[in-house]
Amino acid sequence: MRMYICGEWVDRDDKMPVINPFDQSAFDTVPRGSAADVQAAIASAVRGAAVMAKLPAHRRYTILKRAADLMEERADDLAETITREEGKVIAEGRGEVQRAIQTITLSAEEAKRLHGETVPLDSAPGVVNQFGFTIRVPVGIVAAIAPFNFPLNLVCHKVGPALAGGNAVILKPAGDTPLSALKLTEILLEAGLPEEAIQTITGSGAEIGDVITGSPDIRKITFTGSMEVGDQICRNAGIKKVTMELGSNSPLIIMSDADIEKVAAATVSSGFANAGQVCISTQRVFAARTIYADLLDALVKPTQEFSVGNPFDEDVKMGPMIRQTDAERVETWIAEAVSQGARVIAGGDRSGTLHSATVVADARPEMLISREELFGPAVAVSAFDDIDDAIAKANDSRFGLSAGIFTQNVDWAMKFAQEVHSGNLHINASPQWRADVMPYGGLKDSGMGKEGPAYAIDEMTELKMVVFHLGG
């Protein structure tokens, strides 16, 4: 496919292959964008931002709603594209398309809800003839830098609110998974989006990322990816608004009163979906010591039955990891844990990009599998003594994106909600739960800012204060 800049679909002699992670076949190519391409796209986006700023809310709504309808019409093709370029099983691909449609629909609705409010200036002593109100205006150009693991829905979470707020967008999809974003761009343009309101640049983030994020013409950056890259972006960005959705190693606490079978099912589904390549995958499982052995026993069978293979096979539950080097890293971290006293009680095998669903018992906090973001299909299980010990273990991390607890004890649940350092907290569910309407974001090294169309649009607009100084 070609990339889209300056109102045109363009190609380049220098191309990047798009690789199917399952069979390693190169089934398409995209241009390798250059710094010059970025500069041209920014100049075009400046013009596009001027057009978008004058586009009334009802038109922004109509365009986004029409885009959602077109996505529904092309849902099968979008799902197949996601599975082919990213590797998640086709059922998950279909689910991502439906979520992306909802995200664009929610964004469309938010275009009609942007408003200011009156400010009671006369509440301040001595103010008697002033009338104040606020208005929201677009920031101008939003740079949207997306990850590989949800190549359509996470793009929609950035592009949808940006356009709803009246901005132009420069979209940089992940180099591994650019096709879903390019097809979304086609849909938005067909839906009536002004031709310079979006630029979709393909290429290496290492080569063009700093050019995008350092531009003074870009007033907002929204990024999902690793903490290390997010830190580099923030250092390069200068004074501009940023939303950083970064890494995690999400904890799940299992109290003594939990339903073990329900917990085992939730752990398996949330630990191994999309081969564990989800920011909020269950990674660290902490079980009360009195039920620790029972939980381990309950995890073995469903983990062993979590089949891995061709993601287009309807019976397969888990596809490949995005790259063989990532699968090798997961294998290495598990081996390191075993060398330090942990036990693999289910899974642990790898063949190329296919890594089996794996449960590691007796994990300790100094192990890589506990300390860093694994981003792969393995969960690390350990025991705790009481709720205070469980919370301390959950908080023993530089990350804080999502956490879960299973308990019927209201006091334990409230203590968890109040004391666990996480932006998303789930009671009687796994950390890997997200509705696209909710505010979503992390604490600590997991980032800053919120996604979810109603919340993202606030961060993609500026608040202006207007004061009438009246006579009398």
From TrEMBL:
EC number, UniProt record: 1.2.1.9
GO MF terms held by the record: glyceraldehyde-3-phosphate dehydrogenase (NADP+) (non-phosphorylating) activity; lactaldehyde dehydrogenase (NAD+) activity
Domain Aldehyde dehydrogenase span(s) in chain numbering: 9-466
Reaction it catalyzes: D-glyceraldehyde 3-phosphate + NADP(+) + H2O = (2R)-3-phosphoglycerate + NADPH + 2 H(+)
Root EC class: oxidoreductase
Keywords recorded for this protein, A-Z: Oxidoreductase
Membrane-crossing segments per the record: none
Family of the protein in this entry: Belongs to the aldehyde dehydrogenase family.
Protein name, as recorded: NADP-dependent glyceraldehyde-3-phosphate dehydrogenase
